[in-house]
Write a structure and sequence with these properties.
378 residues; mainly alpha; hpI Integrase, Chain A; 3-stranded antiparallel beta sheet; 51% helix; 4% strand; globular
Amino acid sequence: MTTFSLMDIEMNLFPDDRQGIITDLVQRMDQAEKEKKDKFHFLNDRDVLHYFLYRNTNLNEAANRSDRTIREYELELEQMIRNLLQYAEEIGLDIEDVVEGSLFKSLSPRHVRRYQMWLTESSPYVKENGPYSPATLSRKTVVLKSFFRFLFEKRYITEPLHDSLLTSTVRKDDRPNRDLGPSEVIQLLDYFHDAGNPIVFSLIHVLVGTGLRNDELCRLKMSDVRFDPILGGFYLHVIGKGNKERDIPLKEKVMDSLILYRKARFLSAAFPVGSDEPLLPNSRHMAFRPSYFSTFLGNAIEKVPIRSIQARTSRITPHVFRHSFAIISYVSGANIYDIMRALGHEQIDTTMIYLQKIMDREQHAIHKWNQDTLGRYI
């Protein structure tokens, strides 16, 4: 395997100073334009990767990629680069002629196809943990297609490598069962309440009572709890995916759980304006990391001796309670568009995924049967 000096596997691919990087890249691109050269003439693979990740695409800052999305793209592209360099022989990366010292420019459609198949069928992760879920493969494919399409459209590479990637479709039946209805939520709340565990009780109560995403809850600050002078009561000011803002009214008992959590951590239950203190911190009074929060909550629920919980084949994560919020809202009479807005979804199709199973059962043909259908047997 030829060494690609511009993509040294031991080097950190991603800088902390994103704005400084972009400023430097734009200056070099402007110089190339001034000299009537190709746009990326003074940029190498690493530079183009940074430009793809950190550039703004909209004058409205809130419409650009969120830090969360950027991090997801960083992780996926870093994995691809490291895999291509470290497992070149296994993948079948038979590159004979290196183009301008560039890994990306040296790739051919067959290399991209082989990488996708290797990643799916025989990568170290798959050998150790089993196949990726359809949803994970779909997410990985979206990132890779987006990156290679960018390289081609900006003419950094000459072949449309993105067209070589197979689409990974997630069918309805491929999605894990995340349905957790009101009765199971009540059982969980009762269990942690009676067990004297105000921490887990409050976290579940807040999640199911707000429909928050995992990372949204972890990022909440004290100042995000605000009083509504018009309608009365409190609400959460949340910045979600794509930096989109929404306000979530807090039911009185959910607000009580926020206060209960704070007191259980021996923290103030006042909510001063402008405070950056984490609203729901960990035991060290620092903000939870989303990955750790998911593990922490999942481990606590896994030990609950409730038959219906123990019988579940998929682990209960914070995201499950987001589905519960949608389901409880629907059975309580909320229309799907209100649920979509409450969850911060952009597309109604996403909300439909949350509700599809319960809607299918509710609208099943058997509900049209009457007493005359099978007489006393119906």
